[in-house]
Amino acid sequence: AARSPDNLRCPIVVIMGHVDTGKTKLLDKIRKTNVQEGEAGGITQQIGATFFEKKTLEAQTAKLNQTEQFDIKIPGMLVIDTPGHESFSNLRSRGSSLCDVAILVVDLMHGLEQQTIESLNMLRQKKVPFVVALNKVDRCYAWKTCKDTPIRDALKEQEAGTISEFRNRALDAKVQLQEQGVNSNLYWEMGDDDWSNSDFIPLVPTSAITGEGVQDVLMLLCQMAQRKIWKHIMWCANLEATVLEVKAIDGLGMTVDVLVVNGYLREGDKAVFCTLDGPIITEIRGLLTPPPSREMRVKSDYLHHKEVKGALGVKVIGNGLEKVMAGTPVMVVGPNDEEEDIKAEVMSDLTNLQSKLSTDRVGVLVQASTLGALEALLQFLREETQPPIPVSAIGIGTIHKRDVTKISIMNEKGHPEYATILAFDVDIEREAREHAQEMGVRIMTAEIIYHLFDQFTRFMDELTT
Ligand code: GTP
Ligand code: MG
Ligand code: NA
């Protein structure tokens, strides 16, 4: 089918912002779930994806739409959750690259923070239109809860003192945004000129806990999709897809979470993926999604599909997927395609990353669960550690005996301190642990990236004192 404004795909919405501003909680509110409380340390460490059907968008904006009278035409919305912790700027960068529109979440009590500004700059650099959610509005003094109501209705219920605190804090945020070169205003106070100026940013007060303003955010996103970026989200049949995560699921083996941006992905397709050992081609044996309004990174009763249509997050089942790397593109070999061209294109990002490893082959082994986490760790070790921790090798997924053997060579090279594996969010085979004991290899593990750095720094301090 030809591209047409009457055939839009779901926009991909990314949620970005400083740590603990309430990004996941905001999604929990829309999903009616409780993903945030299940997270280690209450922080997000992966990219997530949730699909909302059109009818959910309609139901959750119904009250506001009594006055707005806006006809929702997009077939739904795919929302990508990102981590706010400073270590994950690569995942934020990936999120901002994958999306069509964004929500930048600010904690109204804190104003702009470091990763708010970082996220803001990423969005501006990639020219992504966004709204700013001034979240935690319920923390204003003596706030009266108006559960799940449009924000203006909720503000009408507040006492003068509460309104005055809200106004001051919203003004602070506006001034801070201005300092970053961004013009903004509470969205209902924007004039026609402001709306037609694509650099002017609407502010929406929200509470992810009690739901005030959530209708307004959803409505603004729908309006932005249909009025501002409709050309960009016209559906087309050519596949555009990226690997979000690679993980083992009980009963399914190794699966690959793929973000299908556009086009179709079908059972039986000959798909090309990127791995550390080179490109692989595999036939797609199954396509699974969580039910609508459920987070893809949480295990659920998956729905089976013969084909999926972008934009959607989908779990792909196939052989030989163990080594596929997150953050890399997925392509399908069509009847008229050159297999070799497609392989080279799928491999290009990794080729780039490998070119940044320590050139004298002296340094630790860094092992992580995804390419994004690996990129984050490498960047951290390169830029945030003093002196930088050299890295000689990288790996993705479970640590095997052969990984231990590989890095034990540092002992022979006269660098026992680098006979170390820094492991983030990966399993370690029992054999590998035993082998590490015998070979004098340390395996440092952590669920939180910066804890790895702390461990390694302590270890280096012990060595030198
Ligand atoms: P990261 O993913 O780690 O960057 O954090 P996040 O932005 O996803 O924030 P998260 O959803 O984890 O929320 C952080 C904390 O703020 C949690 O304790 C939430 O319960 C709380 N919180 C989030 N939104 C609100 C809100 O609107 N009001 C109040 N009172 N608390 C909130
Ligand atoms: Mg989160
Ligand atoms: Na958090």
Nutshell version of this structure?
The protein has 465 residues and is an alpha/beta fold. It has helices at residues 23-31, 54-60, 62-68, 89-98, 114-125, 151-156, 160-179, 192-196, 214-227, 339-354, 371-383, 401-412, 430-439, 449-464; strands spanning 12-17, 48-53, 76-81, 101-107, 130-135, 184-186, 201-205, 240-249, 253-262, 264-266, 270-275, 278-283, 286-289, 303-305, 307-309, 312-317, 329-332, 364-368, 391-396, 420-424, 442-446.
Describe this structure in words.
Keywords: Cytoplasm, GTP-binding, Hydrolase, Initiation factor, Metal-binding, Nucleotide-binding, Protein biosynthesis. It is found in: Cytoplasm. Residues 8-229 form the Tr-type G domain. With 465 residues, the protein is an alpha/beta fold. Helix content is 34%, strand content 25%. It is built from 14 helices and 21 strands. The strands form 4 sheets. Strands 12-11-17-8-9-16-13-14 form an 8-stranded antiparallel beta sheet, covered by helices on one side. Strands 2-3-1-4-5-7-6 form a 7-stranded mixed beta sheet, sandwiched between helices. Strand 11 (270-275) and strand 12 form a beta hairpin. Helix 4 (89-98) crosses helix 11. The chain is globular and about 70 Å long. The termini are far apart.
